[in-house]
Structure formats: structure tokens, C-alpha cells
Fold this protein.
Amino acid sequence: MMVRNIKTLLALAALAFTFGASAYAQDSMKHGDKAKALETGTFHGKVHNTSGRATIYQETDGKLVLRLTNFKTSNGPDVHVILIAAKDADDNANFLNSSTERVELGSLKGNEGDQNYEIPSNTDLSKFQTVSIYCERFNANFGAAPLEKF
Amino acid sequence: MKSNVGSLVSRRKWILVAAGLPILVAAWWAFRPEKLWINQKVSEPAPFASSTDPQPLYTGRLEGRAHQTSGRATIYKTPDGKQSLRLTDFSTSNGPDVHVLLARSSDENLTQEIVKGQLDSVELGSLKGNQGDQNYDLPASVDLQKYNAALIYCERFHAVFGVARLEQF
């Protein structure tokens, strides 16, 4: 009887160890019914000093919105916000390769401040991973923000 | 005779002006040089009502040091002023006496796998799990300008498991 008890205890201990080896926590976060941040990243840009944060939100109805916060870049002619199919855009290259696929989000609303841009609903965010502030007239990349999961 | 020369000069001038003006206008349109010193500032609200939910203040990705560590660390603030650190998509190795700390991102110790000197840090508690989403309350008085890095730290062996440099959200 004693031996059986010890055996059972050992088995239980082994079981506890197996499951205890990886402790999984699952704290929740109150989100209410507002939009959820999917991806975020910070801008870098040297030629035209660009800084701030880019975050992609999904609203409750599924719509995707890009929001720029603490944002600052230089003013310029015909500057647009685009998503590009690349992991990042190089500061030194400063011009996009013509074969780089892009999604147009609209003209830059202001060179400073918080601003929102709608993203077309069929955009594949696993493919378009970088936000670029892009001067269409001179094909110049003012700044880029590589996005990572929030 | 004199007036004739004068009209010739003024005609040339007019031709120059007539030819030069479109070029100037085109150059202005292309370069918009006034934009170098004119800023256009906008301030759109977030596209959702969010006055009652916790707001993210700082965020950063975790980088592994002594052990492979990944995920995101974000500091949230609730409307009543309470602050907390939340880890998401989090994964590190399990270990003895592992704690979550805030430290200074400029601290040389954070570039090492093992801390040798004194670590200037704020204790947030024992690591709840080596995987999964988790929240840690911040002391009310913590200075987030100073303590701008989240640290997964094994107290027993002074091992830095992972570090996240926190940047303004």
C-alpha cells in the first residue's frame, strides 16, 4: 500500500513537472469595443528628417486604418503615404526600386501631427510590411517605418 | 533714333520676362521651396472612442540576451492614472527566480548576458509565466523617462534573459 502511494506520488510529481516546465500566463486586457492595434513601428529617415510612430488599427467593423502619431517629416511637393512590399526601406538608397510593389494611402495630410489614413480592405499586411512617406514627384523616400506585430 | 534703341532693349526685356516667367513658375511648382519653412500641422483624433480604455504609452520588442526571448512589452495607463506593463506574444526560457524589472536603456549591464555591477532597476514582480500574455502593475511613482527598458532578469544568476527598449507609442 505504502509503495503504491509513493509510486502514485512520483507519477504525479513527474506529471506536475512536465506541465510545470512551461508556465503559460494568460492575463487579459480590457479592450472595450474600440479598434485594436495590429502592427506598429517607428519612422527613420535621414535625408529628410522623419520621426514618429506608425500603427495599423483594425476597427470593429474590420476596416483597417493607419495612424501616424508624434509624427514629423519635412514638408515637400506631392508627398504621399504608401505601404510597400518590403521589410524596410533603406535610408541611403532613398529611392524605391521601380519594381517595389506599393499600396497608395493618399496624400500626406500634414508634415507634423497625428493623422489617419484608410487602408484598402483587401490589403495583405503580411506582404506590405513597411510604411513609407514618399515624394512622388522626385521618387524620394522621406522616411520609412517597418511594422512589427503589436 | 535713341527711342528706337530704347524700345529694342525693352522688347528684349519683355521677351526675356515672357520666356523666363513660365520657367520660374514651373520650377516653383516642381520644388515648392516655400515648403522648406512652412509647416503643415494636423491633429486628427484616433479613429475610435477610447477614453475609458487603458492607453498605450510606451512599447518595444523584446530581444534575447542569455536566453532566447521574444515578444512585445507595452506600458499602459488607465484613465484613473494606474500604469501597468503588459507582455504580449511573449516567450522566454523558464528558469529559477525570474523577475520582471524596469531599467535604464542606457545601462551598460543590459548589453551583457550576466550583470556584474549594480543594476539600477525597479522591481515589478516575479515572472508569471515564461509564455503568454501577462500584466504587471507599476509603482505609482516610477519615472518612465528614466526607466525606459523592460527587463526579464534571473535574480539568482544575475542573468539578463531579455530586454525591450521602450519607445513612445
In short: Chain A has a mean pLDDT of 85.
